[in-house]
Amino acid sequence: QVQLVESGGGLVQNGGSLRLSCAASGRTLSNYVMGWFRQTPGKEREFVGAITRNGDSTYYAESVKGRFSITRDNAKNTVYLQMNSLKPEDTAVYYCAATSSPSFNVVITFRSIYTGWGQGTQVTVSS
Fold first, then answer.
1. How many other C-beta atoms can be found within 10 angstroms of the C-beta atom of residue 10?
2. What pLDDT score does 30 carry?
3. Is-contact 121 7, C-beta < 8 A?
């Protein structure tokens, strides 16, 4: 099982930027499609975006498309979520997750296919 640790969260003003990192250990990250999710109190964890094993393709939720970008450095066993033009509604705990899914289509938006999760990092955007 891959172990994941997120970092980089914090408090940022409306319109600001943050970069989250997700460091993996225990398994080689290149074996996994990686996803980012977020959750606010009382709501279900929602899909933010995902990246293929070699980083050649990404997929994003409509709410973050054009503002967020996922990249990965398999040599460093790390995945990144660059968040620009942040809005107060982006405030949430952000989680990275790993899946061995052979497909990179709509299924990668489903929480249930991810078998490894980090502990989350809080992102707060002030208005």
1. 12
2. 92
3. yes
* Helix, strand, or coil (residue 30): helix
Question: For the chain, what is the radius of gyration of the CA atoms?
Answer: 13
How many angstroms separate the CA atoms of 105 and 87, rounded? 27
Give the span between the Cα atoms of 24 and 2, in whole angstroms.
7
User: Phi and psi of 100, rounded to 5°?
Assistant: -95, 15
Whole-angstrom distance, CA of residue 101 vs CA of residue 98: 9
Query: Helix, strand or coil for residue 11?
Result: strand
pLDDT of 106 over the 90 cut: no
Q: Which amino acid is at 78?
A: T
Amino acid identity at 112: S
Coil vs helix vs strand at 51: strand
pLDDT confidence of residue 105: 87
Q: Given this model, what pLDDT does residue 1 score? A: 81
> Quick one: DSSP state of residue 100?
-
Q: What residues pair up with 125 in beta bridges, in sequence order?
A: 12
Residues 83, 64: Cα–Cα separation, whole Å: 9
